[in-house]
Specification:
Largest sheet: 10 strands, mixed
Number of strands: 10
Number of domains: 2
Radius of gyration: 20 Å
Structural class: alpha/beta
CATH class of the largest domain: Alpha Beta
CATH architecture of the largest domain: 3-Layer(aba) Sandwich
Protein name: Universal stress protein
Family: Belongs to the universal stress protein A family.
Helix content: 40-55%
InterPro entries: Rossmann-like_a/b/a_fold, Universal_stress_UspA, UspA
Order of helices and strands: EHEHHEHEHHEEHEHEHEHHE
Strand content: 15-25%
Length: about 270
């Protein structure tokens, strides 16, 4: 764990995320990249008019000042922090910044979103999760010392989840946390008998190359099952794969990973399938 990107919007949630990222950085000697997305229109940035150019420079300088003040925190002492300001609020650009700096993790604060806002707009965190190729750790509440001892990883035991599981195993090892796997069994067409689930478990273990103890949890939806199992098992963090669907595919099919990240009060780390 050498490089961590932390998006900053100067909210209390982004400070919570920075505190967690700093805790991880201190344990692993990682560099934090503080990324602020400055919302400037392309017309304003590309303008050759003197007044607009001055206005653009003023906004950038103001953002630099605010970011410097935001990063003046006692918990960042002895942590290497690199400030980055981008001109557009394009969530795919966060993934590009992560790739450019060979980041291992994105740590982001979130307050979630509900109702119609969630359906038609979604939280910023959901959009980052959707576009990110690397794990995204979502933080909702203040954590003074991020030191998880148990991590729950939920998946449907399909082959497409093997790579996500392997990355979850790596992250759990980085955090020195026990990794527990859970399969959520739901009613209706998705319901499987105990023997059918056991067959899936055996097949999944054969594919990953070693035996795993996988819990079976029954609930009315996968999202509720993941959240409820996390609470019942005393987990400190939830790991979940996500397809990162975009456009109409996301609108009609949604993403369980994004929903869990949006609604969980526990820290959630997502892994792109």
């Amino acid at each position: 764990m050498k490089n961590i990107v932390v998006p900053v919007d100067f909210s209390s949630q982004s400070e919570y995320a920075f505190k967690v990222a700093a805790s991880i950085a201190k344990k692993h000697g990682a560099t934090l990249y503080a990324l602020h997305m400055l919302e400037l229109s392309e017309a304003l940035i590309s303008s050759n008019e003197g007044v607009q150019m001055q206005h653009t420079v003023f906004l950038i300088r103001l953002a630099e000042k605010r970011l410097k003040e935001f990063l003046d925190k006692p918990f960042l002492k002895d942590v290497k922090v690199v400030p980055i300001i981008k001109h557009f609020k394009v969530f795919s650009e966060i993934n590009n910044v992560a790739k450019e700096h060979n980041a291992d993790l994105i740590v982001m604060g979130s307050h979630g979103s509900e109702g119609l806002k969630e359906i038609f707009v979604g939280s910023n965190t959901q959009k980052v999760v959707r576009h990110s190729d690397i794990p995204v750790l979502v933080i909702k509440e203040e954590i003074d010392d991020f030191n998880p001892s148990q991590m729950v990883f939920a998946c449907d035991l399909k082959d497409e989840n093997i790579h996500a599981f392997q990355r979850a195993k790596y992250i759990a090892e980085i955090f020195s946390a026990e990794l527990r796997l859970v399969y959520v069994n739901t009613p209706g067409d998705a319901f499987l008998s105990t023997s059918e689930i056991q067959e899936k478990i055996v097949a999944f273990c054969d594919k990953v190359g070693f035996e795993l103890l996988i819990a079976i949890y029954n609930d009315y939806s996968v999202e509720n099952g993941v959240l409820n199992f996390g609470a019942d098992s005393g987990a400190d963090i939830i790991g979940i794969p996500t397809h990162g669907r975009k456009g109409l595919s996301h609108f009609f099919l949604g993403s369980i990973g994004e929903d869990v990240a949006n609604h969980s009060t526990l820290p959630v780390v997502t892994f792109k399938i």
